[in-house]
Structure to design on (221 residues):
């Protein structure tokens, strides 16, 4: 079997097994923004109508920004339902990034209408919901509906970070989206932290005592 054929078969396998068990609305769930030093963690949840394959949809990390935007428009126009969940920096600090991610995923699922009757979740952790579900390691590379959710989450978060750039131009969030790039770390060193930085994250917390009044204020988060 050709590699591409194996990949296509693997992508369809889990969803086919689930739908054969009688579930109708299968939702893929994924997140964007666990690793950044600033901004929210965003989750996407998408129900794709059985058999409605969207050619080219794959893990958002493998797509260019332009491709993600194009697929976002296709997914949100053709999906049975789609939803997002957003958890900000203060909640991330309060609950830790894993729990904040699960909260965002739960919120995304709760925004689906019709509600799903089975969840396919990227990763190894279940969502605290009383809905049948399966966590799938590297699910965004295996399941089309999870890949679709990854695109919705990524595009939504990138748009938010571009908006934050307008309030905090010193950090250039529009370029690095809050991830710990050299540019971002240097901006923190020079200007201190702003309201959307995650104060419990390494790369931020060690600069808090050295801010000396350089804290950048902006809209509430």
């Amino acid at each position: 079997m050709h590699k591409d054929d194996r990949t296509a078969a693997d992508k369809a396998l889990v969803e086919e097994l689930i739908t054969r068990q009688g579930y109708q609305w299968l939702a893929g769930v994924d997140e964007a923004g666990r690793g950044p030093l600033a901004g929210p963690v965003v989750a996407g949840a998408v129900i794709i109508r059985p058999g409605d394959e969207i050619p080219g949809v794959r893990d958002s990390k493998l797509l260019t920004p332009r491709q993600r935007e194009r697929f976002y428009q296709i997914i949100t126009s053709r999906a049975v339902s789609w939803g997002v969940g957003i958890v900000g920096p203060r909640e991330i600090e309060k609950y830790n990034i894993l729990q904040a991610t699960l909260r965002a995923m739960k919120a995304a699922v709760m925004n689906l209408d019709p509600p799903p009757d089975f969840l396919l979740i990227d990763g190894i952790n279940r969502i605290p919901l009383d809905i049948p579900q399966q966590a799938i390691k590297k699910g965004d590379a295996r399941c089309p509906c999870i890949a679709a959710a990854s695109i919705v989450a990524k595009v939504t978060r990138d748009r938010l970070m571009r908006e934050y750039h307008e309030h905090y131009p010193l950090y250039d969030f529009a370029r690095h989206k809050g991830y710990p790039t050299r540019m971002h770390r240097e901006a923190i060193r020079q200007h201190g932290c702003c309201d959307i930085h995650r104060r419990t994250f390494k790369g931020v917390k060690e600069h808090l005592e050295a801010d000396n009044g350089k804290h950048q204020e902006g809209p509430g988060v």
